[in-house]
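assembly run, all chains below
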Amino acid sequence: MQLAWIKVFVGAFFEILWVVGLKHASTFPEWIATSLAIIISFYLLIMASKILPVGTAYAVFVGIGAAGTVVIEILFFGVPFQWEKLVFIILLLIGIIGLKLVSERLERSEV
Amino acid sequence: MYWTALIFAGIFEMVGVLSINHLHKHRNFTSFILLGGSFILSFTLLSFSMEELAMSIAYPVWTGIGTVGVTIMGILLFNEPASRLRILFIFCIIAATVGLKFIS
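ok done. output:
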């Protein structure tokens, strides 16, 4: 169970890596690394979803991915912090996580 | 142009996720092509959109569109319930996306 959560967190870390790569990669090795990060992050999420409830794993995964992306952008790429942007991103995440958890609850009640 | 690419990236993401399900039922070459093709298209369009858009906008919106798409398809194709809560969350995602487009 613990290992599954570690996979979620590490997977989310690689998710942040490929998002950065997708925007900032320019050299061929950078693109290879980005592709690898995509594969690794999805593989870890899929593995974790075999043990943890899919919706929960995905929700945490996306939440960390989005939060990490915002932080990295501000810290390393000089993007200014904007309150309005943060509010909308949080609203977006509430919607995504909400939908995932509702779907999960539905699946469980059908079992 | 970049927002259009982002929206289509989300749509292809939805197609990709649905094709995983499809692959389970029809294990043939066409299903694999559909799966691979839609994800490749999704990531390519996402990458293109990020030439202009910030990561913190493109990534959550892409995820959001994919999630909304899969949910709506679930309701339309797989008889899943269109509960008020789901409609509310879908609305959150759409409102947030419109908001982000508006401020960027």
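The interface with chain B takes residues 19-20, 22-23, 38, 62, 65-66, 69-70, 72-73, 79, 82, 84-85, 87-89, 91-96, 98-100, 102-103, 106 of chain A (CB under 8 Å).

Helices of chain A lie at 2-24, 28-51, 54-76, 83-110.

not gonna interpret more than that til we talk
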